[in-house]
Amino acid sequence: MAVRGATLAVVVVVVAAVVTPPAAVRGAISCSAVYNTLMPCLPYVQAGGTVPRACCGGIQSLLAAANNTPDRRTICGCLKNVANGASGGPYITRAAALPSKCNVSLPYKISTSVNCNAIN
């Protein structure tokens, strides 16, 4: 039952963040696009195991699409929103490990404390 509650909490946070992205991090890439691109990562974040190939492809495509500061800040802010909603438990730890598991170097950490405004 706790897993269902945690899963529901993650889904609620994602939906809330899609509906209301923070004004300070708006760019050409939307939080909705970020979440849709990373949706294949959700099973790994929720349960661990093998990272789906589509998840790594999504991370790589977001990195490639973020070719300017506003887009990098937007992606960072979207991921920070999810991290804030999923803090505690194994979810944030698994999410933060995704870039290294996919051999992708992001210009920021997936964390509740990342300063997205410092990203260039």
UniProtKB/TrEMBL annotation:
Residues 1-17 form the signal peptide. Keywords: Lipid-binding, Signal, Transport. Belongs to the plant LTP family. Residues 31-116 form the Bifunctional inhibitor/plant lipid transfer protein/seed storage helical domain. InterPro entries: Bifun_inhib/LTP/seed_sf, Bifunc_inhib/LTP/seed_store, Plant_nsLTP. It comes from the Eukaryota. This is Non-specific lipid-transfer protein. It holds the Pfam family Tryp_alpha_amyl. GO terms for biological process: lipid transport. GO terms for molecular function: lipid binding. Plant non-specific lipid-transfer proteins transfer phospholipids as well as galactolipids across membranes. May play a role in wax or cutin deposition in the cell walls of expanding epidermal cells and certain secretory tissues.
